[in-house]
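To illustrate the input format used throughout this study, we show a single complete record. The first block contains the structure-token representation of the backbone; no residue identities are included at this stage. The design step must infer an amino acid for every position from geometry alone.
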């Protein structure tokens, strides 16, 4: 019962946050339209039948039952195009039935631009808010390799712990998120050219194969994880780790004098070591300690264990929470969208456009992402909302009819050629893109639902596997890592 009310609570939080992004966008249009003297017929948050509405000074304010959208009905800006989406029959007439006066194209540009500008203003506000909140977790995961499974193709072809990945197929990457994006956009390529900087500063290029994650269906650098931390989250009672003196929150920094790059680097080194005694260098707060531990072979797990649960706190920080510097984070939010759009319009490799289309998330993915972020931490939820706002701003400025960029395009045409585009042409292309947008949204919703079903199924299978491993490890020793540190994924 408690979980039900928790889900309802965070569902309401998500609806409010998403509605805030829509509201600020439409409020930008509204303010600009009122300032410039345009007629406003309606201000709506959401689509479909209204669950609340009120008319004030000739403007109908309403909240509709489908919260994932909204609009301001401006007959002088768009007398017919958006009716297909809005379900609004307002026309270009005033209260007396007289045709509304035409407005200058520069006014239409300002009104259209004001919506995306509202999203940018909210994004900047949220970025600075998170900058001022110490509790907001921020972490930049660089491209230095923290672990490479010896059984992986990447290790076979020369990638090693400590290497820093500088480029992927000629594109510079600064963070592990950048690396994941470029791997995803590899298109039909089975391998990629990775520019590598060795620990001694020498540079080389490795041709490394991609693997495909079965849940998401995206290309990735399999068996490789970024440099991170190896932190003890739990020490099992009676285990050799407890007898040696290890405690929760201890950070394992060395194993037999060699640096530990990540949780999975530690686990692989322990497997290689077998049941031989090991010397662990531990950071406990600011204190550096050393422990001697002799692993015990667990017959169920079929590997040597010492009785600790491990985690990497940096892996819990999402890409939309990398930079505490607000301008750096806003820059990443913007450029990540631009990179995807470039792949759609001017793909660098064969199959890149297909890879983007295959992995674009729709409304359900956005809502689920916002839900999970807010449930994990309200600050993470606000960070996700900031990223959504930047996405909305950039996407709405695309020069396509129905979008704000389409209105700007038609207005620029009028300024350049001193005449309006033919009304029939405008009507045809606007209606075409309106129906295309509706069809695309329905398709993405359907695909998102299938993806979420696969994710839920995979998470349940992983939970069952971890539960079985924990039961097998009770009374003996374990050094398994939690689900967040899946070895073939990384961040």
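Output of the design step:
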């Amino acid at each position: 019962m408690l979980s039900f009310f928790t889900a309802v609570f965070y569902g309401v939080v998500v609806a409010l946050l998403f509605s805030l992004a829509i509201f600020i966008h439409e409020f930008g249009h509204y303010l600009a339209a009122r300032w410039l003297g345009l007629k406003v017929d309606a201000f709506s948050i959401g689509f479909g039948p209204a669950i609340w509405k009120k008319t004030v000074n000739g403007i109908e304010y309403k909240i509709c039952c489908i919260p994932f959208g909204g609009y301001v009905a401006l007959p002088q800006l768009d007398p017919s195009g958006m009716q297909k989406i809005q379900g609004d029959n307002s026309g270009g007439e005033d209260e007396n039935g007289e045709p509304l006066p035409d407005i200058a194209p520069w006014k239409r540009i300002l009104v259209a631009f004001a919506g995306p500008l509202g999203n940018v203003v909210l994004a900047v506000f949220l970025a600075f808010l998170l900058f001022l909140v110490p509790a907001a977790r921020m972490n930049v995961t660089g491209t230095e390799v923290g672990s490479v499974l010896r059984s992986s193709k990447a290790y076979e072809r020369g990638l090693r712990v400590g290497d820093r990945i500088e480029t992927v197929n000629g594109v510079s990457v600064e963070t592990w998120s950048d690396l994941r994006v470029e791997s995803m956009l590899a298109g039909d390529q089975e391998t990629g050219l990775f520019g590598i900087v060795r620990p001694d500063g020498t540079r080389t290029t490795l041709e490394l194969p991609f693997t495909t994650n079965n849940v998401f269906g995206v290309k990735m650098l399999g068996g490789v994880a970024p440099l991170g931390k190896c932190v003890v989250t739990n020490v099992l009672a009676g285990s050799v780790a407890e007898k040696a003196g290890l405690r929760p929150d201890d950070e394992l920094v060395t194993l037999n004098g060699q640096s530990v790059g990540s949780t999975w680097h530690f686990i692989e080194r322990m497997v290689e070591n077998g049941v031989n005694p090991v010397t662990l260098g531990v950071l406990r707060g600011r204190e550096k300690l050393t422990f001697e531990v002799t692993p015990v072979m667990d017959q169920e797990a079929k590997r040597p264990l010492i009785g600790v649960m491990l985690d990497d706190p940096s892996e819990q920080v999402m890409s939309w929470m990398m930079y505490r510097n607000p301008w750096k984070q806003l820059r990443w939010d913007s450029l990540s969208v631009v990179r995807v759009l470039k792949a759609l319009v001017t793909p660098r490799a064969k199959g890149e456009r297909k890879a983007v289309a295959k992995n674009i998330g729709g409304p359900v993915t956005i809502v689920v992402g916002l839900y999970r972020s807010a449930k994990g931490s309200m600050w993470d939820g606000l960070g996700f909302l900031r990223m959504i706002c930047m996405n909305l701003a950039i996407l709405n400025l695309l020069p396509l009819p129905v979008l704000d960029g389409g209105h700007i395009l038609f207005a620029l045409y009028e300024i350049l050629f001193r005449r309006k585009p033919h009304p029939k042409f405008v009507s045809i292309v606007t209606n075409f893109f309106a129906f295309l947008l509706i069809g695309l949204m329905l398709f993405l919703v359907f695909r998102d639902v299938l993806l979420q079903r696969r994710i839920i199924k995979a998470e349940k299978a992983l939970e069952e596997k971890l539960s079985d491993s924990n039961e097998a490890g009770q009374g003996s020793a374990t050094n398994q890592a939690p689900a967040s540190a899946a070895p073939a994924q990384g961040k």
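Structural context for interpreting the output: The chain has a mean pLDDT of 83. Residues 140-226+312-316 form a domain with the Pdz3 Domain fold (CATH 2.30.42.10).
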